[in-house]
Amino acid sequence: MGSRASALVRLACVIGALGIALGLLHLLRPATERKGEDLALGAQARSVYSADAHGPLHCGGTTGGDACVAASRSRGHPGAVLWLGNSQVHAINQWQAEDENASPRVARALQSLGTDFVTFSIPNGSIQEHWVIFEWVRARLTLKGVVVALCYDDTRETGLRNGVLEALTDPAVQGRLEEHALGRSMLARKPEAATGGGELAGLDQTVQQRAERALVDWLQSNWDLWAKRHRNRLEVYHRLYRLRNTVFNISPSTKRPKIPARYAENLAAFDALLINAQAAGIPVLAYVVPIRPNAEIPYVQADYQQYKLDTQRLAEARGATWLNWESLVPEALWGSKGGTQVGVKAELDFMHFMATGHAVLADALIRTIRRDLLESP
Amino acid sequence: MIFNSVTFVLFFGLCFALYWTLPRRPRLWMLLAASLTFYGFWRVEFLPVMLLSAATDYGVGLRLPRARTQRGRALLLLTSLTVNLGLLAYFKYLYFFAENVSLLAGWLGVNWSPPAWEIVLPLGISFYTFQTISYSVDVYRGVVEPERDPILFATYVTFFPQLVAGPVLRAGEVIHQLKVRPKLDLEDLAVGVRRVIQGLFLKVALADNIAPMVDSGFATPLHLLSAIDVWTLAFMFGFQIYFDFSAYSHIAIGCARMLGLRFPENFDHPYLAHSPKDFWKRWHISLSSWIRDYLYLPLTGTKVGRMQSQGGLGDVTQQRRTAALFATWAIMGLWHGANWTFVVWGLYHAVWVYAHRLSKPSLAALPAGGRKALGWLVSLPIAMLGWIPFRAGSVSDVVTMFATVVDPGAYAALGLRETTYLVAALLMAGVCLAWLVNTRVLGWLRPRPVLWPVSVTLTMGVLLALDFIYLRPIAQFIYFQF
Fold first, then answer.
1. How many whole angstroms separate alpha carbon A31 and alpha carbon B396?
2. Any residues with CB less than 8 A from the CB of A159 and at least 6 apart, and which?
3. Residue B102's CB: how many other CB atoms inside 10 A?
4. Tell me: the pLDDT tens digits for A238-260?
5. Choosing among A203, A215, A221, A303, which should be mutated to test the B contact, i.e. which has the most B CBs within 10 A?
6. CA-wise closest residue to B271 among B197, B116, B380, B190
7. Three-state SS at A182
8. How far apart are CA B304 and CA B320, in angstroms?
9. CA distances from A67 to A80, B57, B137, B180 (A)
10. Is A149 helix (H, G, I), strand (E, B) or coil?
11. Distance from CA of residue A74 to its chain's centroid?
12. Is residue A360 within 8 Å of A333, Cβ to Cβ?
């Protein structure tokens, strides 16, 4: 091929490659701006974090949690009850406009009794993360009680995600964690806790960090394609997730085996939370989360039963209230979720119920919090 | 400066434009200024350390031919070794040494703790000191002529594409290229761009996404890891470090190629190796050849001269060869990091090489194809398991994990997320597929005037999209810590 023809072919290849890249970037983007966790929830469910005139009642992790703390202080109540949970707490299945989850309902009821109610919930939140959030919040607010949602599924999780990791830089949290072997291990594993990780973690303490931050901020503000990269990453992950589920026929009904190492760590975290709460005179209510009745649960039964026994044993040994609410929400109040396999439109949702289900949960919480946290000696 | 960043993309774009518009001499000045800027974007205060190493060996190189006696020549070489190894000893090993003295003192009943020094390891020091040492040794051996131009020499030492994590360049490979003014060649440009895109993909799309799974796995309490978990983590880290390190080399070689410079290859499908010798001809090739020529062969007493001896160990006794083998690998391990785990890693490889030497006569009876296939099946798990000491936090962790692997009862359970095993299997399949494509498919495609550009366009388009999506400096390259 002559040199001119060769140059033209190369130019065509460059243009072609750029075109393919641009096409892929548009293809790999969700139609609407949705949070990563909402993609995992499916089209029918929506995360709802409520607020009132003082500010948010409900936050995700500790990153951004200052708003919840400030709002609670602003309400002027002498203390607050903290609710820690996973996506079941913030997600509403078959969401409609004006739907509320349990958090604002309980908040209104307790505020009428002179106690604030603050919720922190993160998707697939492990008890390790709940523990860190508990220590972070109680360093900032007077807690009259803690409610911990115990989800067997989340004992398969470990580590602290970015929304919680930053809390490890708080000396008060560090001090509390250091009192326990698990806490020391968590602190030792997180050298990036000093910076909280993040997109520029590789440039920490270098001259380039400032230059990179300035360039990235400029691109973020001036180039739409760049600003939407997080959505591309989300879509890549989501498609790989669905492909994996399709190839291996994994669905919400698939039995999730116990991961012994992680299970042990999460139970140790629960125990540490209970010990610290007891030492501080903060009563704890721990409940086994509602799961969809009349459907085979996606857990190995023996492991699930053992989990309930283990958490009950720990709770009662530390003077906490333990309740089994797995059958609390009736079947009719649960919904479906978007399919997690390619070509599957809808699947049963074992974890997230409709707004009416949240009302049932809220009523149970209000009754139990009053009886076991606020009115008990 | 880190490759996987917007800053570097802009920086290199500017360098590229200036390089091809400036005449030869200003171009050299520009390269040097760019290299110093590149390094200074990390920490400006460590520039003098690098320049000290360069200046020492520049001076040693000039004086060596003028030395009248062998003693004089030896003293000059000793100066180079003292300065460079002294820098390494201070910045990299001082605290390690002090900690071990403290430990030893404790065993002897003496209570002494090292001071709380805050010694920051200069980026790339292990690489550029080896590079400058190799220059002085090559001048001493008569392999290369001393370079008189200080700017050219400084550019060779500090040249930014390979400064921080290699390839470790010999003077004879690079200096003559810097002297001439290459012409802008479209083939060089095309190959260079492809290498950079491939390298970025390996780093930002693969290595950085594998890292959290590896970190999570190694953070698991060891008594809760099964043997399958240890194997899986060994493979996962083996892939992570391969993608991470080869990515750096791809980008370095690609950038150099875009500037008309040819760097030697640093990786050649190491996980398809069929013996330890084969593995070290495929993994970090520039370092293993450096260690062979500047450490191992001299330790065996072999004279390494102008022809860069490739063999000729016939006069060396087995005992001396074995002693040199183990000493070399212990040093090679320590080069990677100031921790006994790296020494364990080095000795692990020494044992592997030694065992292979002993088994060679038995294997000779097998047909060549069968020997290679069996060799691969044995070498792959050994190579991967060798990454455990490289990644583990302490020697006791290494012992625990190795003990788990040899315990038949430890194969019964699984302790990691299911996705981890799946990803490990997919990556292994991917590595084999990449080898197949590179060795069988590309050769078939290249002569085809339509299929070749179409397949290159498709591949580069997909990789470019993924590079764009994932370009974030969320983690340094692993070899930055060396």
1. 51
2. A126, A128, A189, B216, B219
3. 14
4. 888 888 888 888 887 888 889 88
5. A203
6. B380
7. helix
8. 16
9. 15, 59, 63, 62
10. strand
11. 25
12. yes
Is the Cβ pair B453, A20 closer than 8 Å? Answer: no
Nearest CB neighbour to A215, from listed B6, B460, B469: B6
Q: Give the residues across from A348 on adjacent strands.
A: A336
What pTM did the predictor assign?
Answer: 0.87
Check CB contact of A217 with chain B, cutoff 8 Å: no
Percent of chain B residues topping a pLDDT of 70: 97
**Element housing A173 (H / E):** helix A171-178
Q: What is the DSSP string of A47-78?
A: E---EETTEESEESSSTTTHHHHHHHHHHT-S
C-alpha count within 13 angstroms, C-beta hemisphere, residue A243: 8
Known catalytic residues of B? Answer: 336
Q: What is the DSSP code (8-state) at residue A167?
A: G
Residue A186 near residue A168 (C-beta atoms within 8 A): yes
pLDDT digits 0-9 by tens, B243-272: 999 999 999 999 999 999 999 999 999 999
If phi > 0 it is left, if psi is from -120 to 50 it is alpha, else beta; for residue B121 that is beta
First to last CA, chain A: 91
d(CA B195, CA B180): 23
Question: Would you call B6 an interface residue with chain A, using a CB distance cutoff of 8 Å?
Answer: yes
The separation between CA B65 and the C-alpha centre of its own chain, rounded to angstroms, equals 32
Confirm or reject contact between B14 and chain A (CB < 8 A). no
- Which residues of chain B make contact with A208, given a CB cutoff of 8 A? 1-2, 5, 7, 41-42, 473
pLDDT of B350 above 70: yes
Q: Is A349 helix (H, G, I), strand (E, B) or coil?
A: strand
Please name which of A40, A94, A87 lies closest in space to residue A242, comparing C-alpha atoms. Answer: A40
**Which of A323, A345, A327 has the alpha carbon at shortest distance from A336?**
A345
Is the peptide bond preceding residue B167 cis, with omega within 30 degrees of 0? yes
- CB < 8 Å to A16, chain B: 457, 461
A7 touches chain B (CB under 8 A): yes
Query: Are residues A20 and B419, on separate chains, in Cβ contact within 8 Å?
Result: no
- In tens, the pLDDT along B203-231 reads 999 999 999 889 888 888 788 889 999 99
Residue A194 is predicted with a pLDDT of: 38
- Angle between the N-to-C axes of helices B70-88 and B47-63, in degrees from 0 to 180, rounded to the nearest 10: 170
Q: How many CB pairs under 8 A join A and B?
A: 132
Query: What is the secondary structure of A245-291 as a DSSP string?
Result: HHHTT--TTS-B---HHHHHHHHHHHHHHHHHHHHTT--EEEEEPP-
The amino acid at residue A133 is I
- Token pair 């949602």 is found at A149
* pLDDT higher than 80, residue A145: yes
**Contact status, residue A105 vs residue A128, Cβ threshold 8 Å:** no
Do the Cβ atoms of B474 and A211 come within 8 Å?
no
- Ramachandran class of B308: left when φ > 0, alpha when ψ lies in -120 to 50, beta otherwise: left
> Between residues 18 and 47 of chain B, which touch chain A (CB distance below 8 Å)?
40-44
Tokens representing A367 are: 């009754």
Q: Compute the distance between CA of residue A329 and CA of residue B174 in angstroms, rounded to an integer.
A: 73
The vertex-B401 CA angle with B93 and B408, nearest 5°, equals 155
Q: Residue B7 and residue A233: Cβ atoms within 8 Å?
A: no
Tell me how close the Cα of B222 comes to any Cα of chain A, in angstroms.
9
The HSE-up count of residue A69 (CA atoms within 13 Å, CB side) is 16
Q: How far apart are CA A327 and CA A196, in angstroms?
A: 39
Tell me what ipTM this predicted complex has. Answer: 0.84
